[in-house]
């Protein structure tokens, strides 16, 4: 993969902004790879490759980790996957538009661990709130910003 031409790799199982990703990828001429389990229906379209993997709980993550290279952009809401792709030199972006980085990922992983402990002991935690149109616009603006920065940094 050439350093100037990233791929947008999407953890697509529960991603609510697939249409925004496809549209933005097409606008920038950047290929999009959506990865999901066979349990989810993804419709192929121009500029978007689709890979479907086994139903195993980590199959999508393992495929993405094996595929991602430095400079790619990964869209995921999975903090563990985000931490791994950051270590590989990829950009990690949540489907809410949060750019994960080395400063924030440790805190997010700790918080996830604490919430899992609370749930195992019978406690409750809040799930993510519903996506709004404003959330979708915010995500698309962040993805556009990341792609513009990649474009500027790859020019001679």
From TrEMBL:
<comment type="similarity">
    <text>Belongs to the UPF0178 family.</text>
</comment>
<feature type="compositionally biased region" description="Basic residues">
    <location>
        <begin position="114"/>
        <end position="127"/>
    </location>
</feature>
<feature type="region of interest" description="Disordered">
    <location>
        <begin position="112"/>
        <end position="139"/>
    </location>
</feature>
<dbReference type="Pfam" id="PF02639">
    <property type="entry name" value="DUF188"/>
</dbReference>
<protein>
    <recommendedName>
        <fullName>UPF0178 protein PACILC2_39210</fullName>
    </recommendedName>
</protein>
<dbReference type="InterPro" id="IPR003791">
    <property type="entry name" value="UPF0178"/>
</dbReference>
